[in-house]
Design goal:
The complex is a heterodimer of chains A (about 90) and B (about 190). Chain A is of the alpha+beta class and about 90 residues long. Chain A has two helices and three strands. The longest helix of chain A is centred in the C-terminal third of the chain and has 16 residues, at about 60-75. Chain B is an alpha+beta fold and about 190 residues long. Chain B has one domain: Class I glutamine amidotransferase (GATase) domain (Rossmann fold, 3-Layer(aba) Sandwich), CATH 3.40.50.880. Chain B has four helices and nine strands. In chain B, the strands form two sheets. A seven-stranded mixed beta sheet of chain B has the order 1-2-9-8-7-4-5, covered by helices on one side.
Chain lengths: ~90, ~190
């Protein structure tokens, strides 16, 4: 990190696209219902990433996070992502 | 054997991406290996018409690099499946399957947890039209769409498959169908 850079924190959520089978979500749903924890119609399991970026400005940090999401954190055939900035 | 941190390929006739569990299957199977330095050279090799085979984790790496279409996701039963598997040769016009008759049933072992092939919409239709489906499961073990066990690139020079042909190369191993695949490669050079 250089003197003119700032820290920006983001959370990234990755979830399977509609139509992609989610056997883990299905198993979790069954466990919820079997154990009477609630009457659940659907569960989807996804991933959460916390990313701390060092950039000269917010615009640059957002650009980098978007590229990381598209290039590595998700496979666009099966997944989609959303991200949001969080405070310290 | 070429180390993943290398950036160039030596002069080779065929690149084989073997199975295994690269980077502990973190993130998605093959996702981090797909970003290894050597994969840029493999991608270039594909672009100049090189022959490539990806087996199991190697297949997952080829889909993650977008050299092959689709994605491999967890088996529908959430189990690691390890058994001999009957396959149908859906396309014998590839360098890897040319020694088989069309629609012939062969036996090759599978050993995977994330082997469910997924692709949808116009892309799966395109794959079918381009005769990109090379191998199909006879009794679909993992929920793969259209029973797909192996696919090839548009130029038919890159093949990815979840079953392990290298484990079916001797009668004592139960099958020689895998050997026949490697013999197909040799007879096409």
């Amino acid at each position: 990190m250089t003197f003119n850079e700032k820290v920006f924190k983001f959370k990234v959520e990755v979830i399977l696209k509609k139509g992609v089978l989610d056997p883990q979500g299905e198993a979790i749903k069954q466990s919820i219902n079997i154990n009477s924890l609630g009457n659940i119609l659907d569960v989807k399991q996804g991933k959460l990433f916390e990313i701390t970026a060092s950039s000269k400005n917010r615009e640059q940090a957002i650009k980098e996070v978007e590229r990381i999401c598209a290039d590595l954190l998700t496979n666009s055939v099966i997944e989609e992502f959303t991200y949001y900035e969080v405070s310290e | 054997m070429i180390w993943h941190k290398e950036t160039t390929l030596p002069k080779v006739d065929l690149v084989v991406l073997p199975g295994g569990f690269s980077y502990g299957d973190y993130l998605r199977c093959g996702a981090i290996a797909a970003k290894s330095p050597i994969m840029k050279a493999v991608k270039n090799f594909y672009e100049i018409g090189g022959f490539i085979i990806g087996i199991c984790n190697g297949f997952q790496i080829l889909t993650e690099t977008k050299i092959l279409p689709g994605a491999l996701i967890p088996n529908t039963n959430q189990k690691f499946i390890c058994k001999d598997q009957d396959l149908i040769v859906a396309n014998n016009k590839t360098f890897f399957t040319s020694n088989f008759e069309h629609n012939r049933t062969i036996s090759i072992p599978i050993a995977h947890h994330d082997g469910q092939y997924f692709l949808n919409g116009p892309e799966i239709e395109e794959l079918e039209q381009n005769e990109g489906i090379v191998l199909k499961y006879r009794d679909n073990p993992n929920g793969s769409i259209k029973d797909i066990a192996g696919v090839c690139s548009k130029n038919k020079r890159v093949i990815g498959m979840m079953p392990h042909p290298e484990r079916a190369v001797d009668k004592e191993l139960g099958s020689v169908s895998g050997l026949k695949m490697f013999e197909s490669v040799i007879s096409n050079f």
